[in-house]
Write a structure and sequence with these properties.
three-stranded antiparallel beta sheet, Cytochrome P450, iron ion binding, single chain, 45% helix, Cytochrome p450, disordered N terminus, alpha+beta, 412 residues
C-alpha cells in the first residue's frame, strides 16, 4: 500500500481507505489527483480489499441515480467498505439505508414524518433553548473541548428527544454511536468482540423502551413510529438493532462533526469568518457550505448487481464501489476554489454530503436546522470560537470527524 503522493501522470496506487489519510488530514491532494487523472480508479488489495474509487461529483451522482444496478443492500455488503466477517464477532443487522426498494421505501416512510418541515418548526424553539443554555454555560476565561461541551452534547440531547430516551443516560447514545460507526474495528478481533458487547447492551436497553411503548398510545418519537407502522412493527431483533444504529450514527456523528467542522473551518479562513460575523443573513447558505467542506461521512459503498460501463470503466457484477463524497464535494469542476470555505458560495447546496437519490439523508433538514441555530445563537452573543491547537481527528475512512478540539472564546 503506497502512501507517497505521485507526480502528475504517475500511477495512482495509494489506498484511500487507509485511515491515516484522514486522521492526519492529508487526503485532499490524492483525491485531487484521482479526480484529475482517473476519477473512477481501481484499488487492489487495499485495507478493505479490492474496490473502485468513484471520486468526481458527476460520477457519484450517476451511480447514486441507479440503485437497482448499484445496490446498497446488506445482502451484497451494505454501505461501508468493510465486509462482514463470519467469525461470530459481526452481526447481520439490516437497516433501511442498507436495503434496496421496495423494503427501503416502506421503512424510510415510517421514520420520515419525524423530519418534516412541520416537525422542524415544532422542534425549533426547543433546539434554540437548549443551544442557548449550552452556549451560556461555556467558560470565557479558560480553554475547553468544543467537541465534548458543544458538539456531542447538542447532538446527544437531540437524539434523546427523538427516541424519547432517558435523559440521564443520554451519553450512552454517543458511546454506542462511536462503537457502531467505527468500521476500522474490522481489523481487530479483540475490538470486534468489544463492539459486540456494546451493541448487545444497546439492543437490550432499547428493547425495554420498545416494550414500554408497544401497548401505549402513539407518540411522536421514533420508537413509537416504528411500533405503529406496517413496515417496521414486525422487525426481528437484528433489524431493530440495525435501524437503531442507522438513526443513532446518522443523527450523532454527522451533525456533531459538522458542528466541530464549522469552528475549525472558519478559523482556517478568517476573511470568511468575518464576512459571516458581519452578515448573519448568510447563515443559511453558510450551513450548506460548512457541510460541504466538512463532509462528515467520507464515503458510502455500493455493490454492482450486473456488469456496467461506467464512463468507460468496466464494472463487473459483484464489484465494490466507494462513493467518496469527501472528494466529490471538493470537485473543482463544480465548486470553484473547492478547498476553501466561501460562506456566500452560490452553489453550496449542490454538495453530496447527504447523499443523492433515494438514499439521501432522511434527517438532512434537522441537521441543517441544528447547525443554523448554533450559528445564530453564537452570532447573538458575538461569540468567536478560537481553535488553540490542531484537533484530534477520528482515525477512520468512513466517519470524518473530530475526537477533541481545544478552543477559547472571544467577542467580536
Amino acid at each position: 500500500m503506497a502512501t507517497v503522493l505521485k507526480e502528475p501522470g504517475a500511477e495512482l496506487n495509494y489506498d484511500m481507505s487507509d485511515a491515516s489519510w484522514y486522521v492526519e488530514d492529508r487526503w485532499q491532494e490524492p483525491f485531487r489527483q484521482m479526480r484529475t487523472q482517473d476519477p473512477i480508479h481501481w484499488t487492489e488489495k487495499g485495507m478493505f480489499g479490492n474496490f473502485w474509487n468513484v471520486t468526481s461529483h458527476k460520477a457519484i451522482q450517476h451511480v447514486e441515480a441507479l440503485p437497482e444496478i448499484f445496490s446498497s443492500s446488506y445482502e451484497y455488503g451494505g454501505i461501508t467498505l468493510a465486509d462482514r466477517i463470519d467469525d461470530g464477532t459481526e452481526l447481520v443487522m439490516p437497516m433501511f439505508i442498507a436495503m434496496d426498494r421496495p423494503k427501503h421505501t416502506g421503512q424510510r416512510r415510517t421514520v420520515a414524518p419525524a423530519f418534516t418541515p412541520t416537525e422542524m418548526k415544532r422542534m425549533s424553539d426547543d433546539i434554540r433553548r437548549r443551544t442557548a443554555e449550552i452556549l451560556d454555560g461555556l467558560p470565557w476565561d479558560q480553554p475547553f473541548d468544543w467537541v465534548d461541551k458543544v458538539s456531542i452534547e447538542l447532538t446527544t440531547q437531540m437524539l434523546a428527544i427523538l427516541f424519547d430516551f432517558p435523559w440521564e443516560d443520554r451519553r450512552k447514545l454517543t458511546e454506542w454511536s462511536d462503537w457502531a460507526g467505527d468500521i476500522e474495528l474490522v481489523h481487530s478481533e479483540e475490538l470486534r468482540q468489544e463492539r459486540l458487547k456494546h451493541l448487545y447492551e444497546m439492543g437490550a436497553y432499547f428493547k425495554k423502551l420498545w416494550d414500554a411503548k408497544i401497548n401505549a398510545e402513539p407518540t411522536p418519537d421514533l420508537i413509537s413510529m416504528m411500533i405503529h407502522s406496517d413496515a417496521m412493527s414486525e422487525m426481528d431483533e437484528f433489524e431493530f438493532m440495525g435501524n437503531l444504529i442507522l438513526l443513532i450514527v446518522g443523527g450523532n456523528d454527522t451533525t456533531r462533526n459538522s458542528m466541530s467542522g464549522l469552528v475549525y473551518g472558519l478559523q482556517q479562513f478568517p476573511d470568511q469568518r468575518e464576512k459571516l460575523e458581519q452578515n448573519p443573513e448568510l447563515i443559511p447558505n453558510a450551513v450548506q457550505e460548512i457541510i460541504r467542506w466538512q463532509t462528515p461521512l467520507a464515503h458510502m459503498r455500493r455493490t454492482a448487481t450486473e456488469d456496467y460501463d461506467l464512463f468507460g470503466k468496466q464494472i463487473r457484477k459483484g464489484d465494490k464501489l466507494a462513493l467518496w463524497y469527501i472528494s466529490g464535494n471538493r470537485d473543482e469542476s463544480v465548486f470553484e476554489d473547492a478547498d476553501k470555505i466561501i460562506v456566500d458560495r452560490e452553489n453550496a447546496r449542490r454538495h453530496l454530503a447527504f447523499g443523492y437519490g433515494i438514499h439521501r439523508c432522511v434527517g438532512a433538514r434537522l441537521a441543517e436546522l441544528q447547525i443554523a441555530i448554533l450559528l445564530e445563537e453564537m452570532a447573538k452573543r458575538r461569540m468567536r470560537v478560537n481553535v488553540l491547537e490542531e484537533p484530534v481527528r477520528v482515525r477512520a475512512c468512513f466517519v470524518h470527524g473530530y475526537r477533541s478540539m481545544q478552543v477559547s472564546l472571544s467577542k467580536y
